[in-house]
Amino acid sequence: MFKAEIDGIEMELEEKISILDAAKKAKINIPTLCYEEGLSIYGGCRLCVVEIEGEELLKPACATEIEDGMKIKTHSKKVRELRKNLFELIIATHNIDCQLNCLTCSRASNCELKEIAEDIGVSKMRLDPIKRGESIDNSSYAIIREPEKCISCNRCIRKCEEVQGIGIFTTANRGPETVVTTFKNRGMGNVECTNCGQCILSCPTGALHELYQKDIVLDLLNDESKHVVVQTAPAVRVAISEPFSNQAGDISTGQLVTALKRLDFDAVFDTNFAADLTIMEEGTELIE
Ligand code: SF4
Ligand code: SF4
Ligand code: FES
């Protein structure tokens, strides 16, 4: 057991955890960008910097262990100023068309950059944005990559490698020229991507997003000469529960099927049985 203090709150801790995790325990919010729970620590964005009494340099809270007797300030003037400067540098590498006031971006309604900008008080872009002239990658049938919107947080690299075990993303170049790209800079449609979408969930900007397919589906549904069927994966009935105003984790098969029928699908198929067979097969392989 040891003691530390964060923003004047005395804490008794039993194990060495990061300053970020200790702050969470004390219900203190420290902004983060490259950090994501469940992924390894990268420590690249430095947005989570904090001031430790007696130390001249500010330290990243996600990558620094809290120690006995530490006195930490998470929102001192020095911290807030550096955080703003760092954030302005980060958004200068983000596509100017966005201007933190996006209309057409896929992340317009849930952009982490906008949330952080509001939290730390950045309301305009003071630095000239760096345009790299990279084109949009449309090569995949499911995932679009817009490299100009990438802020090199590295989360997609770690998610694809550590969670999915695939590892199609990597970094290229050095220093300020460093960019996140795909294996050999190939298009998303030309790498071993399984289209699981996990990297999209991790991406804090609109640099990775799904291909918009609503118009294609609606055109087919409007075409009376077509018999249009839909087949849902088992997970969808749970994932859709919250948009249906049910509790997270609820099973909403009935509402899902009704909604699809109302959309005018001619038939609704369920992958449940085939998924059960797959699990039985995988389970048997594991036991053997
Ligand atoms: S969608 Fe592709 S690139 Fe993204 S995490 Fe899954 S396998 Fe990796
Ligand atoms: S594509 Fe998204 S998740 Fe990957 S490094 Fe760029 S901003 Fe981060
Ligand atoms: S969130 Fe800690 S360094 Fe990026």
From TrEMBL:
Cofactors, names only: [4Fe-4S] cluster
GO cellular component, one term: membrane
GO biological process: ATP synthesis coupled electron transport
Role of this protein: Ferredoxins are iron-sulfur proteins that transfer electrons in a wide variety of metabolic reactions.
Iron as UniProt keyword: yes
Domain 4Fe-4S His(Cys)3-ligated-type: 78-121
Organism of this sequence: Halanaerobium congolense
Alphabetized Pfam families for the sequence: Fe_hyd_lg_C, Fer2_4, Fer4_7, NADH-G_4Fe-4S_3
Keywords recorded for this protein, A-Z: 4Fe-4S, Homeobox, Iron, Iron-sulfur, Metal-binding, Repeat
PANTHER family: HYDROGENASE SUBUNIT, PHOTOSYSTEM I IRON-SULFUR CENTER-RELATED
4Fe-4S ferredoxin-type domain ranges (all copies): 141-171, 185-214
Lineage: Bacteria, Bacillati, Bacillota, Clostridia, Halanaerobiales
Protein name, per record: Ferredoxin
Single GO term (MF): 4 iron, 4 sulfur cluster binding
Residue ranges annotated for the 2Fe-2S ferredoxin-type domain, each copy included: 1-78
